[in-house]
Sequence to fold (175 residues):
Amino acid sequence: MAKDNFWKIKKGKKDIQFLIHNQRLAEEFKDFFIRKVETAGYLKYDHPFSFAKAVLKVLKSRGFKLILVTLRRNKRELMQQLDKSGLKELFDLLLVEKQDLKSGDNYKSKIKAIRSYVKTGDILVGDTRADVQCGKKIGLKTFGVLSGLNNITNMKALKPDYVIRDIRSLLSALR
Fold:
């Protein structure tokens, strides 16, 4: 898959379910994603939203402990990205877990990573199936964010407690 096509799909919020019905295209996408998407050449296109740092600062000022749990494969590139964006210092804890490529049950990796850090009343905010499944399985109030790859139909099907457009909505939801 060409780089331009990948980013059109990702940034355009297109429903990528069509990949499921085309095995060759699905394998090509998966191979591309695994090999390329976390390299410096592609990460230069992956920027946090302009409001992300301000929202995280407000949440910190309100006493929230912020934990980033990610399934990124390239921890070095992730840390460089977080440093460059100024976001790294806002997180109390950074957990980088391995994806389960065989079963696809990535939520289990996230559960394993955060189980000892969460308590009753905590929330989970995420934009992936694994995020929502993780939050639901361990009993956290779960916010599904539409600023990732999932469209509203797919996100609602995952049944998070709340579906929000982006993290700015947290500021009013968590008053």
Notes: The chain has a mean pLDDT of 84. DSSP finds nine helices and five strands in the chain. The first helix runs from residue 3 to 11.
